[in-house]
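Sample intake sheet
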Amino acid sequence: MFSKLVRNTVLSIYLALPNFKQTTSIAILVAGIGLFGIKSVDARNALVQTPDVSQSSSYAIAQLLDANSPIYGSWKLRYSVDGVVYQSVLVMQGYSGVMRTRYFDSSINQKQVVDQEISLKSSPQGLVLLGYNPVYPGTSRRHPTYAADNFLFSVEPDGSLTAYTCDDLRQCSAVDVESLLSQS
């Protein structure tokens, strides 16, 4: 069931996005988001179970691992979903961080601000920042409609930065990144 969801997600992204590199990066991010933290229902027998390899697939499943090196600094991120622009400030302090996001919520006709925690992971496609616990600023009260943000950052062989986001509802976008403050 889950493999069909991943395959359908990858196919829909592939059809919607003409750039193969962008498609692959987003597919890896979406697959990684779907797999992160999921454990087998029968985890005590995980070493005994044989994976189902009867069906071949041309899609690689992303593996998220702990990042090798911490990152420090602050960045301004800008991205959009369905025409709504999101502006975030991300502050990383090693393997974790926080992010504040501002956007306009047309369903209530007002500006919204959301804070979330960020966890740093690594994948074959680059660094993955997983957002979780979106709350109203200064509180522990969970935001009722905001889907946590997840980012993929890659430094290409030519030195350029590629950045994408897919939230927990699998709404994806390219991301503009601006460094605000860098710490050593």
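Comment: The longest strand covers residues 110-123. The chain has two helices and ten strands.
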